[in-house]
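Section handout 9: paired folding examples.
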Amino acid sequence: MKGKQVLLTGGTGGLGLGVTPAVLAQGADVTIPYRSLKDVERLKGILSPADIARIKFIPANLQDEASVKQVINSMMRVDVLIHLVGGFSMGKTHEYSFDSWKNEFELNLNTTFLTCKYSLKRMLENGYGRIVTVSSRAGVEPAGNLAAYSATKAGVIALTKAIADETKGTNITANTVLPSVIDTPTNRQAMGAENADKWVKPESIAEVICFLASEAAKDVRGAAIPVYGNV
């Protein structure tokens, strides 16, 4: 990815703390939309000054179409989209609120659609692109108490595969990764740390993402790659 312009959403989050350094290590120039300055400072705390200099941080709301469009149009070009934004909440289907259901779709699926839509437009203009989304094991193995999350992540897989089909015959690819439980501070707090040694590390997911985002993955299209750790 040396010299490539990368849009990295969620780059300041728990998974982003593993992915962002890996992308920078490949020599890319990175644009990171953010919501929280505290998270930006946390990321900067693990990076060198030279790496920080290759990141453009832009405040943005990725659930708002105009905001997404503005971020992407501000970039010189979009060679790579790595979309990490997402989250989950739990609850039995008969007790789960419709507002929570809609919020889950906004966060996990609608942000994926908007960033893919506008990134893909730029990629088609330039004749090159790599799109990497993050789904989940729950997208192919839905679990009780995770109906909304499972539905949104299945949607991410379907969206990514549709884009891969639309871009056949071009130098643009679209693929997704399917983590199990990711070993982040948020997940440790939510679920306890007794099984964290079996969870997949952000750095491990980052290696798969960086391959899919590279020129070496030009023949990988529409893949949904499990990254389950030992769960």
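Moving on to protein 2 of 2.
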Amino acid sequence: MFEIFAQYLQSKIELSDQELKMIEEVCVVRKLRRNQYLLQEGDIWRFNAFITKGCLRTYSIDDRSMEHVLNFAIENYWIGDRESLLNGTPSRFNIDAIEDSTVLLISKDNFAGLMKSIPQFQDLVNLIIERSFVASQDRINNSISLNAEEKYIRFIEKQPQIALRVPQHMIASYLGMTPETLSRIRKQSLKK
């Protein structure tokens, strides 16, 4: 599974064989079955996780037992709870596998060591954080300024590969609507 991560890294930055070996030595492979948790609410998240296979989601459950999906992640995506990782506080979120999945875990300390030892790895991490921030801004703006149909269309346009792999009720939760509303929107869009 490290080969997939190595290909990802080499498509973004130049690394020597020695640097790749340093990275490989700190990676731990974790296989998840469908519906298995990577992180449960209340646990402290201590890793940076890269997905080599599968599809996962990050979500919370409110006091009415309603799920609220924050994001989906597939191959070549990173996933985790940054707040819990950075502050050492219990997570407010769950992360579970929508499909059988494999992730590479790098502990917080080992990740920091890689960033210190490999400057271009630090540059990649900064770029990922910047893009993540932009994506979060876009998601917040969409959620407060678009109607339900526009949200769905934007989701399909921006994340078509995820839309094909995720159950409709989870997409509805991600978009902040009921499954019934999403079903109605999908039927209307098929008629157009």
